[in-house]
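Troubleshooting: if your tokenizer reports a length mismatch, compare your output against this known-good record of 253 residues.
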Amino acid sequence: MSTFASSSPIYRIGGGAGAALNFKLGKGSGPLRGSSVTVGYLGSEPSDPGIGSGVFNGNYAALGQLNFNLNSRIALAATYVHGYHGTGSTLFDAGGFGGTTNGVTNAVVGTEQANALSTIRASSSNSYGLAAAIRPSDKFSVSGFVSYHDVTGFGIGDDFEAWSWGAGIALPDFGGRGNVLGLFGGAQPYSLNRNLTAGAEDSDVPYHIEGFYKYRVNDNVSITPGVIYQTSTGQNEDNDDVFIGTLRTTFTF
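Known-good structure output:
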């Protein structure tokens, strides 16, 4: 399973060091039983003592989330993230997890148009997401998400919007206990009408489709082959579609 399919891109905004608190809502058999509120803060540059860095003075992401567990088989979440992004950052950088190239932080998910913050000024972002997971039975589950991101640059012409959405199904124990067959489709974060390359038509939605099968060899080893199909790379349908084959081995001790 790819990074994009594993969770909503809204959770890839910021990272590093910080803390999170979870508060339960409701008691007994009330309508809010099993629901909660989560608040968190992450600083992307915790080990840098320089001016404009550190846990509180550098890049950060502050999260608030309402979690609704309607019963044992239906869960909903509404998420808000406010972020600050210094010069040379990207929006979906997972706290710099992807490293840097030529002084610019690499994006973990999404197109260049959805990640390209100003290289000479800082930016702030407000992101909103909805997610749902439904498990009609122990052998079948459906999940999905949608997110919207409003970026405000601290200069002229630095503002933009980005969107992302996706949905998938999973069949646990398909073909044997511990195996999982999964299918997922959606659109990685994209921003329309941001022509970053002169003469390019960068206003096409980049669709992402993938399938994988997790095969449990034994209690300690599993193998997961998969395939990813990506259209309109660079948000340009004139670019060739891309097929990516994957193979992951997981060891559990």
